[in-house]
Amino acid sequence: MINEAANPGEKSFYQVSTNKHTGILSWLLTVDHKRIGIMYLIAILSFFLVGVVIGLFMRWELMFPGKTIMEAQTYNTLFTLHGVIMIFLFIIPGLPAIFGNFFLPIQLGAKDVAFPRLNLLSFYIYVIGAILVLVSLFLPGGPIDTGWTFYIPYSIRTSTNVSMAIFAAFILGFSSILTGINFVTTVHRLRAPGMTWFRMPLFVWSTYATAWIQIIATPVIGITILLVIIERAFGVGIFDPALGGDPILFQHLFWIYSHPAVYIMILPAMGVVSEIIPTFSRRTIFGYKQIAYSSLAIAFVGYLVWAHHMFTSGMSDTSRWIFSLLTFIVALPSGVKIFNWVATMYKGSIDPQVPFLWVMSFIFLFSIGGLTGLVVGALATDVHLHDTYFVVAHFHYVMFGGTGTIFFAALHYWFPKMFGKMYNKRFAVISVVLFFIGFNMLYFPKFILGYMGMPRRYYDYLPEFASLQLVSTIGSWILAGAIFFVVGYLIHALYKGKKATANPWGGVTLEWHIASPPPMENFHEIPTITHEPYDFSQLKEMKYGE
Amino acid sequence: MGSAPTIHVETVDFVMLYIVGISVILLLGITVTMVYFVFKYNRKKGHKPVDIHGNIALEVIWIAIPTLLVLSMFYFGYTGFMEMRKVDKSAYTIQATARMWAWEFGYDNGLRSDTLYVPIDQTITLKLVSVDVNHSLFIPAFRIKEDVVMGKTNYLSFKAKETGAFDIACAEYCGLNHSMMYSKVIVMPKNEFDKWLNSQIEKDSLSTQDSTKTKDSSSIKNSLSSKDSPSGKN
Ligand code: HEM
Ligand SMILES: [Cu+2]
């Protein structure tokens, strides 16, 4: 393979416009997948930070029993917004839209995604959806207060702006579907010569599996949302029992999308882990095919477990145990991945740099998330723990400890490639440690609170919960401190960071063969692939370290 | 644990311990191995990395053992759950009605109360009815809950073996005062319960009309329950 990095003076994609404009329009109208990835990064990171700030306010309110800073209605609005922002604007689009856009074509040896214009369209649909969420906050009626699950009948009864907010979720769904279609097509059509299916990096595999879920599952939420809007606007009885509808049907439809959506959130993260561990262990991944297949397995059997969110809804006892059994079965592929990752470190040559440290904390936090999933997968315990803080802790460990942590891992892994700059590694190590401590302080007490019987979505609580609630709030400050610190030193590195080399970590997937930041269209010449993805003997050909 | 208020509590605590016990072992196993590898195979030591593509025997082992483990977890969860669901014929039925944001319990003699009084050592079945949105009747001390859904009658059973007062919370988000929708279940000896049931009949119609105001607010800050009027919605 040609070593393209050795091409000094070459222009990066920042310096070449894909259209006739320069300046801001060369970004807003770009069809380059890398520029679109960066625009997503800016948008998604901003919403994430907004979500974090809302989380901080919620924790502040919960610091002491009774009113601390806000009224009950405000609190109810905040946890709804926090949930909606974190789910629909951060964690679902997060990794695919940012890192998938930027790296999927490069890792395949392609110049761009299959449909570059459609890609830009998905971005604008995302922006429109996000704007609608914001607009819904300021319309008469007030911000939505239903929780991010929009359960009927409450979401029909409340006078807040439900229709507008869920319509935003409807719009955001299209962005997700279009991105999915684009990635599936890209993987099928644009692989470089020699890039067989089993030479694809695992990040590509997992993004591919995710794309299928995006295509297949998202329409279900779209249809459901339309039905709710029709019901609210015209009084047609679909879900509302007062009109002869069935509120449990809503829960089924909602979770038929939202459970697979959990895999939309986690699969790309698993892909990133499968990139970072080989790079810093400098050896091939253990069980490549098992990891690839288990991504597909998760993508296709993940549809069969939605009703485990409804074990106390009054479903028949038979459906409860069937869904419990299926839930345990679906947990297995994720477990297998964890074992494979740890096994990949065996007899490696491990250099625990910053991205690797994030991955280590991921493995710990995500394992806790997964294992506590077994607790709520079992019927006897779930009946007690459902809708308590135990569940709040569980899903934060999975989504935030899992995908959120990997968002930071990916950012630190690919930052030098995306921006051509290196951040301050000492600051970065401090931030991982703070993140890890803050995270556990914030969320671990919630497991205990949940078992003690503290229900979720509570503005106020009994005195016996006070001390653990206080610990949790203090944890939120440490965690948020770490997050803002990361954002701070990364922005600083953009301006003042040392120039990054083409291959700072000794990676071998295709993105490390080209310059940092990559040139427009990535490759001068489409490469021919002759190696498996994690074959580190390539480092010699790549003249790494010379 | 002789002090558990119901037998089911012991069952749930056992299932919890079982799953958490196995989980802690797995978590420690994973974490310790990972940290050990990072030291043992650290690049500073200058080992040459060895490419190991996989190992079928290992893959089989680490899919088979977890499968057995999770099936056993499923089984205990299932039997524990069925124990709570089986209702004997002698069960005493009380209707529990949820509304934003209060509970009301109706007895077969027409008595209604905002606190749930029940006799000890007697299976109680709550018929759960909602007059507005979804709620969920949650008795943490008994480790049980079931959603209360309008247009659908769910049920929830328990049999207390200790007298005492235990919290009832609403666990399904139901709007403004969701977090204040607390009541209590009072478990009393059989004869006292009968006395209560009969002596209360006359007062019945007076005490139930305004149940949202009379709720036992000692547990939650008083300032809150008075400040947020339940009428702000709908
Ligand atoms: C510093 C960061 C964060 C803090 C302090 C925080 C805190 C909280 C708190 C206090 C709740 C409400 C619990 C309750 O009363 O039921 C909550 C709910 C939630 N959080 Fe977070 N969180 C943070 C980050 C995240 C992230 C990164 C995600 C997603 C990846 C997330 C997703 C959610 C969701 C979906 C809910 C449920 C909302 C609902 O009940 O409708 N959070 N969070
Ligand atoms: Cu309620």
Question: Overview of this structure, please?
Answer:
- The complex is a heterodimer of chains A (546) and B (234).
- Chain A has 17 helices and two strands.
- By secondary structure, chain A is mainly α.
- Chain A has a two-stranded antiparallel sheet with strand order 1-2.
- Chain A is globular.
- Chain B has helices at residues 7-40, 56-85, 190-199, 204-208, 222-227, and strands spanning 92-99, 102-106, 112-113, 116-119, 124-130, 135-139, 144-148, 154-158, 164-170, 183-188.
- Chain B has two domains: 7-85, Helix Hairpins; 92-226, Immunoglobulin-like (Sandwich).
- Residues 204-234 of chain B have low confidence and may be disordered.
- In chain B, helix 1 (7-40) packs antiparallel against helix 2 (56-85).
- The longest helix of chain B is centred in the N-terminal third of the chain and has 34 residues, at 7-40.
- Chain B is α+β, with helices and mostly antiparallel strands.
- The structure holds protoporphyrin IX containing FE (HEM) and copper (II) ion.
Quick recap of the structure?
Chain A is mostly helical and 546 residues long. Chain A is built from 17 helices and two strands.
Topology, pairings included?
The complex is a heterodimer of chains A (546) and B (234).
Chain A: H1 24-28, H2 33-61, H3 72-91, H4 94-108, H5 116-138, H6 154-157, H7 162-189, H8 202-234, H9 247-281, H10 288-301, H11 317-345, H12 354-377, H13 379-385, H14 389-419, E1 421-422, H15 425-452, H16 466-496, E2 498-499, H17 538-541
Antiparallel strand pairs in A: 1-2
Helix pairs in contact in A: 2-3, 2-4, 2-5, 2-16, 4-7, 4-8, 4-14, 5-7, 7-8, 8-9, 8-10, 9-10, 9-11, 9-14, 10-11, 11-12, 12-14, 12-15, 14-15, 15-16
Chain B: H1 7-40, H2 56-85, E1 92-99, E2 102-106, E3 112-113, E4 116-119, E5 124-130, E6 135-139, E7 144-148, E8 154-158, E9 164-170, E10 183-188, H3 190-199, H4 204-208, H5 222-227
Helix pairs in contact in B: 1-2
The complex binds protoporphyrin IX containing FE and copper (II) ion (CU).
Copper (II) ion (CU) binds at residues 98, 101, 135, 170, 174, 178, 181 of chain B.
